[in-house]
Structure formats: structure tokens, C-alpha cells
């Protein structure tokens, strides 16, 4: 192997190592989106009155809710989504809460997935730092 090839191989290996390190840093920084959304919405939906729904939302955020509690919370969210005594914003949050809860479950089962477009953005940002 000539000296030029050895230099190219070494430079390539160094770039690969640097990229692996940057990917490791990105992976450590990525926070799953849906748990954050769930906490935000559930916090917005909690009331000081500590109703049954509030208690279940607290259990959900503390990850102490069981399947029976999840089912009951979904029922209560469905009711709140059509309750004329609450604001439109609260109705909308109650409407999407069951879907967000399911997305959190899926993300916890499978791990966070980065859609191809976001992966390309991450890759481009890594390349631009070289």
C-alpha cells in the first residue's frame, strides 16, 4: 500500500470515528416527543379540584397508572371532549389525549423513530459541522 492510500484511509477512518461520536451525542440529546406532549397536555387538563380525571392524569404522568385506569381516563377524556362547560381548547386537548397516550406506548415499545426527512436534516447538520 502506498503512502497516499494510507493517508486517505486514515483520514476516512478519522471522519468515520468523528461521525460516530457526533451520532452518539445526537442520540443522547434526542428526547422522545410524545411523552413531552403527553405531559404538557395532561398538565393543562389537570384541575385543582382533584377529580377522578385529575388523579388519573397524575398517575399517567407518574407512570403509575394501570390498564383499568388508562381505560377509565380515555372514557373521561372522551366525555370532556364534548362537555360544553369546558373551553374549546380543553375539549380539543381531551380529544387528542387518548391518541397521544397510545403514541407514547408505541414509542416506549419500539423506541423513538426518526422519520427520513428528520434524519436527513440531522445528517446535513452533522456534515455542516465538519
Structural account:
- This protein has helices at 3-29, 33-45, 52-62, 67-81, 88-110, 116-128.
- The chain has 2 domains: 3-30 and 114-128; 33-110, no CATH class.
- It has 130 residues and is an all-alpha fold.
- Mean pLDDT is 81; it is low at 118-130.
- The longest helix has 27 residues, at 3-29.
- 78% of the residues lie in helices and 0% in strands.
- It is rod-shaped.
Supply database-style keywords.
130 residues, mainly alpha, 78% helix, 0% strand
Largest sheet: none
- Mean of residue pLDDT? 81
The count of domains is 2
Helix count equals 6
- The structure class reads mainly alpha
Number of strands: 0
The helix content, as a percent range, equals over 70%
Uncertain segments: 118-130
Beta-strand share of residues? under 5%
Give the radius of gyration: 23 Å
> Shape, please?
rod-shaped
Q: Distance N terminus to C terminus?
A: 27 Å
Which series of helices and strands comes N to C?
Answer: HHHHHH
Amino acid at each position: 500500500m502506498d503512502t497516499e492510500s494510507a493517508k486517505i484511509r486514515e483520514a476516512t477512518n478519522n471522519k468515520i470515528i468523528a461521525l460516530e461520536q457526533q451520532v452518539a451525542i445526537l442520540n443522547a440529546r434526542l428526547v422522545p416527543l410524545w411523552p413531552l406532549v403527553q405531559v404538557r397536555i395532561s398538565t393543562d387538563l389537570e384541575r385543582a379540584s382533584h377529580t377522578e380525571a385529575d388523579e388519573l392524569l397524575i398517575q399517567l404522568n407518574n407512570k403509575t397508572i394501570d390498564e383499568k385506569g388508562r381505560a377509565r381516563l380515555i372514557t373521561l377524556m372522551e366525555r370532556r371532549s364534548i362537555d360544553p362547560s369546558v373551553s374549546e381548547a380543553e375539549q380539543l386537548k381531551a380529544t387528542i389525549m387518548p391518541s397521544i397516550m397510545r403514541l407514547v406506548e408505541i414509542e416506549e415499545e419500539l423506541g423513538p423513530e426518526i422519520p427520513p426527512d428528520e434524519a436527513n436534516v440531522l445528517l446535513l447538520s452533522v456534515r455542516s459541522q465538519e
